Structures are given as C-alpha cells and as structure tokens.
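Continuing the batch. This is chain 6 of the set; chains 1 through 5 are on the previous pages. Same settings as before, nothing changed between runs. Recording input and output for traceability.
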Amino acid sequence: MRTVLAGRRKWLAAGALGVAMVAAAPVAIAAQGTQDDQGARTASAGSGDRTQEVRQAIQGGHARNVILFIGDGMGQSEITSARNYERGAAGRLAMDEFPLTGDYTTYAVEKGNPAKPDYVTDSAASGTGWATGTKTYNGAISVDAYGNPVPTLLELAKRSGLRTGDVTTAEVQDATPAVLGAHVVDRDCKGPDETTKKCARNAKENGGAGSISEQLVQTRPDVLLGGGSKYFEQKATAGQFKGKPVLEQAKAAGYTVANTADDLAKARPGTPLLGLFAPGNLPVNWTGPKAAQGGTAPTRCTPNPALPKTQPKLVAQTRKALQLLDDRRSDKGFFLQVEGASIDKQDHAADPCGQIGETIDFDAAVAAGLAYARSNPDTLVVVTADHGHTSQIISNDAKTPGQTATLVTNEGANMTLSYGTALPGSSMEHTGTQVRIAAYGPQAANVVGLTNQTDLFGTVKRALRLR
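Output for chain 6:
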C-alpha cells in the first residue's frame, strides 16, 4: 500500500505543477535547455540511440486501466505551432514524450452507403470510429451508416465492471464526449427540445432513448465533467421524468453535481460525479488577434480575462477523475477519456492564440495522465486527435489568399499561421489528413505505423479484455 500511495503522490504532484505552468505560460519568454514542470524537455531530445528505449516500451499483455486523450482538431500543424510557441522549435511537449508513435486515417462514410468513403470527417463520425469500431456518416453519434446503435467502449467497460470517466472542455453533449454514452442520428440532438425536432426516431415521446443528455445520464459514467448545463435545464418529453429538467434525472441516478473548481476539489469517491462548469463550452485559456487577410502585426498571446476563476483547468479535471476512478482495493480498473475540445473550435475561428492555448492546456492534462501511468505501469495511455484542421505554419513573408496572424514565440522569433479552408468570415473547415496517435503502456505497440481510426477501438478493447 505504501508504494501505491507514493505513486499517487507523484502523479498528483506532477499534475499540480502542470497547472502552474499553463497558468503562467503566455506572459514571459521561457528559458531554454531546462526541464519544465511537466517533465517535457525544452532542449533538443532524441539525438542518441533510442533502440533500447523503444524496445522496453513494447509491452504485450493486458491493461488494468486505459486513459484516452483526444485533442480535437489537433493535427501535426497544431502540435507543431504549440511546441514552437511554448517550448521552442527544438523543444518537446508532454505528448512528444511517448515512445511509440504512428498515424491513423480518419475518413467517414456516406449515410446509408458504408462502402463509399467521405474523406473529410467531423468529430461525430470520427469519435464513433474509435468508440465503436464502426465507420459512420458525419453527424452520427455511435450509430452505423444506417442509424442503428452500436455498443461503445464506455458501455462495454461498464458491462465488464470497470469504472468509467468522460471529461471534456466542451459541452458534455458535444460529439467527442457524446460518442461514449449516447446513440443518436444527429449530433445536434443534445437536449429533449432538439431531439424532438431533429432526431424523431430517438425522441422519448416516440419510444426512443432520448437526447444525448438523457442518454448520458442513463449510461451513467462514474465521472462526467465539462460544460453544457443549459441542456440539463430542458424538460423531458415522456417517461418517468416527463416535464422535469434532465438535471433531476441525473440527481435521481445518484449524481453529485459540481459547478465550480471548489465543488470539484471537494468531490469524494462513492457516488458518481457530474461536473457542469459552464452553460455551453468552457471559455478558452488564451486570447489574441484572430487571423486576417493581409495578416496581423507580430504579437504575444495573453491570458483570457474572461476565463472564470471558478472554472477548473482540464488538468485539474483529469487529476480529479483519476483520483475518483483509481481504486486499488478493487480487482477492476477504469476507462477514462479526456478531450481538449477547443483546439478545434479555435481553429474554426482562425484564432491562433486560442488554438495554441488550448493545445498547451490539453498537454498539461496529458502530462498528468502520463505521470499516473509511470506510477501505475498497468495503465495504457493513448493520445491522438479525431481529425486534422486548417492551420498551417508558413513563411513570415509569404503572400497567401488565406487569413494569417503572426505571433512572437517564447524564443523571440516570429511565427506566422495561415487559415485558408473557408472564405473570410466563415468557419474554417477540417482537413482529411491522417493524424498522430501515440501510446505508452500495455498494447501501446499497436499504434505504430499507419492504422485506421477504428483500430483504436480494438486496441483498447483488447487491452482491457472487454467483451
């Protein structure tokens, strides 16, 4: 028991230091050649012979726990721009420390025609891919190309007696968290009102399982954290809770409700935890000028003054989820998904500071998960994205028809980002590129090389011995 407690202290301390690093990140030029609070190197890494390191990283067997980190829209360019800005061109993020790395393809399929690919996926179809092992159409939440429900990793984990968690910086009803605990034909069916209008076959009044909010409550992950409280205020249209807010269903299901960082810190094991920290998506960490045609003057990113002090950081949510799910007295482990959602949302908005700040915030959560796994080697950690996105690092003197912004990095150099997958004033579009996937722990070798997004389902299922 002493060893387990010592291990817990280590990863809790690592996560706490990560919070301090992210809070301070945008305001000062970083020193080079040092080791930061997350354990990610700021000096050039990997210059020696890594054969033994990689050999030791390859483990078969099974995992007691799986932590799946999803950086929404976090393509290689998003990772590189965050690294350049925060760590320097020769630096390393926590997610760069994973010894086993590959890429996976992200395509969706056409509705009603699963044999025909749709080369650019959205978060609903991509999330359904790793959550169920099934390709589907854009907008679908854990249903196949014909709209039929498919079991998810979280549902299979619960069926096997594992504890489960679902954490996000978006609304908990957003596509990536929703794919673990709901099955609807349209991702917009977040509450009973939208479900009646857009997902008639799923609506409670028509005999369906209800909205994403209602289904998440029914699936009952042990830890569910994010935003989206406004959908829990909508009233059920049928069933036992007809006319009552969805939040009443959650309380009846035994959930303790947290609305602030203090509430989160006070949560204790024993009852499921529902954290709703904003009416919609959680506000982002950093702010700065959006990209514009003709570019912007070189500038630094700054902390978002609108970020509520009562809002917990993603790393704090991750650490609390791990604390609540980690029960060494049980012979069962856990499955936890953690999403950095607004990397994607700020990419859509052509907002480089928002995008980079969310990537750094996400990386702090990854560092906490990796620290936990290093203290608990029966844990598989996977970090990946759901799809690629628009931002590209271009020459500072490039002339482009897209929108650009120039940032001054922690190295004191200019870095120009270009956004060009939509017309000015429109939401930027995803791209169809393959994206990085990296892993640490049992079964991690299965991400090496080029795989399909749906293969991740098999890797997690096999690691946890789910049936």
